[in-house]
């Protein structure tokens, strides 16, 4: 039982808080202990759990005291709800008592995780600093979570300075040069030619597919063989655009077996063999396919990290007709029933395109709606399943995100503070139990499908296992574009009629790169939902919660020589 003697409480508080507790807030803390029937030790543990994600204990401020009071009030209300369900007498609040010695924040959460599946190792749940991307943020024998794009953080606003770009930064030169170097190493090419220069011998050129100016100026224009142009980098060809024509007997080298050609779209980086014979265009006789992504370098020997289950659901989470969030309630019902180890949620959560939100037809501030609708049910779930983890990825349509462009920073930590809910940028790369994920909420599949022009060609030196079925349908080829082009959004420029869905910011294009092959690629789209295996990567379109679907993933922990085996299934939400 907590002591009600102010002197005893004061002594306990001063013992645990030490120099962090000033006289200006000491009396308020004593009152909280008496009001909520907790000891000074309990109050200290509550404070440490709140500031854990901010770098640990520091000087206690009146704002911290207000947070502690809110946390104690939430715990009290939760006990009341449990009491109403069980009709058992309510016990005094003993928040974490006896679970921690003086080992600091990480020790506190490690002890809390002793009976759970996730254990906190790092003294901060924020983004690791550069060079520490392989260090796990959460780990125990069952579940380990690691950020793979550790250089990004909303705590580094200089990384997200928009509208400060120079004209020279508005091109894709760096990307062309990067792809050219990959091709040079893969094919053993000595030098690349300039597609605008007339030559008698065939040369290999690398450039970006564009549309000629006359076609590009027309509304709803789509790429076709007559409007193709090739733009080289300024280093390899002064950035000149040259009309592109394909030989009738054009070949494609080292394409995936069965594709029978190459999908072209504005922004696609291609390598071509041919020549400019002085006719004002480059005539391509052979297409050199980009090599596959390199596999991820896994630390240490390949071994099982333990299995896990994941549910992934994508917004919008309510229909345009109301703000009842029925699809979201179906998602919550499903995760409460299935109890997955990891829940991945992609925005939009509060959609700027929703009529009620667009015109302000709401009864509460947006942060309050977000807290009550999304965060509170997630916290209840996390309380019911110790060790579970929630990952949240925003959308450019999210009203509560400060960044409305793509690539996009994660939600601000001011919305809530819970170490069990990890905020991720859009796009993002991370690993769970050493199973790597690449995720974006932008509908890149629909954009590619709308702009793609397929050029048929004869396959030469095709790649792919003999005798095995290879996915070469249109949806699989769209996913293959993203992997081969090594970018979450390989189109450039964005289609005019779809630009508002992306708000693409080229100056931050480094955040769009996919440097290594992911085990799982998740891209929600308005196209029909699917799961496919693309050269060892499980690619999935879970569609949207408003369409009644979500993605269910399971990893048994087995890691055969052929790679990670992840089972993926598109499932229906209960009506």
TrEMBL record:
Residue span(s) of domain DNA polymerase alpha subunit B OB: 173-289
Segments forming domain DNA polymerase alpha/delta/epsilon subunit B: 313-532
Subcellular locations according to the entry: Nucleus
Keywords, comma-separated and alphabetical: DNA replication, Nucleus
Pfam families from the UniProt entry: DNA_pol_E_B (PF04042), OB_DPOA2 (PF22062)
InterPro entries: DNA_pol_a/d/e_bsu, DNA_pol_alpha_bsu, OB_DPOA2
Main location: nucleus
Keyword Ligase attached: no
UniProt record similarity statement: Belongs to the DNA polymerase alpha subunit B family.
PANTHER family the UniProt entry points to: DNA POLYMERASE 2 ALPHA 70 KDA SUBUNIT, DNA POLYMERASE ALPHA SUBUNIT B
Function comment: Accessory subunit of the DNA polymerase alpha complex (also known as the alpha DNA polymerase-primase complex) which plays an essential role in the initiation of DNA synthesis.
Protein name: DNA polymerase alpha subunit B
């Amino acid at each position: 039982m907590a002591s009600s003697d102010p002197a005893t409480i004061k002594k306990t508080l001063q013992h645990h808080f030490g120099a962090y507790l000033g006289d200006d807030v000491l009396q308020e803390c004593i009152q909280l202990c008496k009001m909520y029937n907790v000891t000074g030790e309990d109050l200290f543990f509550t404070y440490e759990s709140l500031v854990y994600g901010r770098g640990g204990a520091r000087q206690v401020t009146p704002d911290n005291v207000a947070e502690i009071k809110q946390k104690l009030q939430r715990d009290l209300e939760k006990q009341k709800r449990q009491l109403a369900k069980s009709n058992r007498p309510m016990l005094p609040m003993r928040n974490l008592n006896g679970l921690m010695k003086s080992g600091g924040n990480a020790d506190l959460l490690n002890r809390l995780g002793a009976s759970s599946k996730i254990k906190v190792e790092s003294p901060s749940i924020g983004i690791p600093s550069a060079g520490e991307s392989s260090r796990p943020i959460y780990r125990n024998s069952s579940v380990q979570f690691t950020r793979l794009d550790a250089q990004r953080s909303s705590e580094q606003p200089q990384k997200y300075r928009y509208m400060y770009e120079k004209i020279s930064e508005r091109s894709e030169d760096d990307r062309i040069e990067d792809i050219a170097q990959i091709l040079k190493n893969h094919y053993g090419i000595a030098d690349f030619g300039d597609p605008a220069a007339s030559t008698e011998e065939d040369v290999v050129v690398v450039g970006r597919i564009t549309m000629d100016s006359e076609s590009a100026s027309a509304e709803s224009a789509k790429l076709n063989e007559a409007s193709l142009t090739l733009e080289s980098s300024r280093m390899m060809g002064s950035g000149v655009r040259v009309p592109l024509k394909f030989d009738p007997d054009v070949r494609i080298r080292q394409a995936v077996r069965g594709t029978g050609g190459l999908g072209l779209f504005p922004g696609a980086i291609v390598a071509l063999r041919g020549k400019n014979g002085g006719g004002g265009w480059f005539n391509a006789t052979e297409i050199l396919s980009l090599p596959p992504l390199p596999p991820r370098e896994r630390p240490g020997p390949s071994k099982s990290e333990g299995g896990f289950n994941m549910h992934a659901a994508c917004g919008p989470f309510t229909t345009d007709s109301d703000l009842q969030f029925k699809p979201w309630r179906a998602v919550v019902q499903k995760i409460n029933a299935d109890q997955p180890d990891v829940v991945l949620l992609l925005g939009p959560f509060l959609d700027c395109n929703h009529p009620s939100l667009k015109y302000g037809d709401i009864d509460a501030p947006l942060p309050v709606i977000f807290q009550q609708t999304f965060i509170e049910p997630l916290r209840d779930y996390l309380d019911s399943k110790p060790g579970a983890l929630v990952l949240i990825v925003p959308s450019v349509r999210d009203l509560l995100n400060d960044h409305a462009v793509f690539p996009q920073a994660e939600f601000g930590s001011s919305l809530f503070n819970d170490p069990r809910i990890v905020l991720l940028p859009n796009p993002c790369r991370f690993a769970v139990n050493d199973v790597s994920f690449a995720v974006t909420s932008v509908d890149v599949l629909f954009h590619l499908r709308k702009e793609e022009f397929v050029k048929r060609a004869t396959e030469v030196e095709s790649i792919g296992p003999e005798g095995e079925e290879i996915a070469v349908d249109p949806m699989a080829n769209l996913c293959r574009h993203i992997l081969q082009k090594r970018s979450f959004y390989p189109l450039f420029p964005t289609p005019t009629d779809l630009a508002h869905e992306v708000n693409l910011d080229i100056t931050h294009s480094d955040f769009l790169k996919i440097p290594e092959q992911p085990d799982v690629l998740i891209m929600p789209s308005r196209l029909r939902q699917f799961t496919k295996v693309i050269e060892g990567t499980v690619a999935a379109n879970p569609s949207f919660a408003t369409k009644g679907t979500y993605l269910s993933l399971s990893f048994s922990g087995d890691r055969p020589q052929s790679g990670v085996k992840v089972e993926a299934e598109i499932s229906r939400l209960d009506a």
